[in-house]
Every structure is written in structure tokens, then in C-alpha cells.
């Protein structure tokens, strides 16, 4: 009887330690996170976390043409982009990491505001 209880306890300990390692493994497989924040003018702050080796950040136009491309070899990425030289149109920031592609579309448009003011 003692052997049976001891065997059951050993089996439970092995199972518990195996499942604990599996949880740690799956926690490391978190999805990447791409965030784009608009700053003053046509500046954008782009951040990404949980990146895999050989990740790539790119700016593409509506037709899919790559306007900018940078390899990222770190776990996280942060950069401010000044896009004042781009003409009006639809674009996207694209993050490729592993077999996943994350897109954040944005639009650049020129707006003219008419204002009436009293003449002095």
C-alpha cells in the first residue's frame, strides 16, 4: 500500500512539473503587438513587441508597393516616422514576424479650412 501511495505521489509530481513547463512554453508564444500613434503633423510613433527573429517593419501604399522596409532583430521595436514627404493617399504599416503579418492602415489627406474674420 505504501508503494502504491508513493508511486501515485511521484506520478502527480512529474505531471505537475511537465504541465508547468508547458505553460511557460505557451506563454512565450504570445502574439506580436503593433501599435501606431499619431503625433504632431505627419509624425507617427510605431511600437511592436513580442517579435520573433528576423521580423520586418514596412510602410506600403494602397497598391502594395513597399516604400520603406527595415529588419528588426530585437524582441521589441520603437521608432518615430516623419511622413511629410508622402503625397495624399492610403498607406499601411506592416509588421511581419514569423508567419504572421499585422497591418495598421492610415490615410494622409490635405484639408483646407476656410475662416471668416473681422477686417480691422
Number of strands: 7
User: H/E element string?
Assistant: HEEEEEEE
Strand content: 35-45%
Q: Overall 3D geometry?
A: elongated
Low-confidence stretches: 11-29
Give, in spatial order, the strands making up the sheet with the most strands: 4-3-6-7
Mean pLDDT: 77
Cα gyration radius (Å): 25 Å
Largest sheet: 4 strands, antiparallel
Provide a count of the helices: 1
Task: Compute the separation of the termini in Å.
Answer: 104 Å
Brief summary:
By secondary structure, the chain is α+β, with helices and mostly antiparallel strands. It is built from 1 helix and 7 strands, in the order αβββββββ.
What layout of secondary structure does this protein have?
Elements: H1 2-27, E1 33-38, E2 43-49, E3 55-61, E4 66-72, E5 77-82, E6 89-97, E7 100-108
Antiparallel strand pairs: 1-2, 2-5, 3-4, 3-6, 6-7
Keywords:
single chain, 120 residues, alpha+beta, four-stranded antiparallel β-sheet, elongated
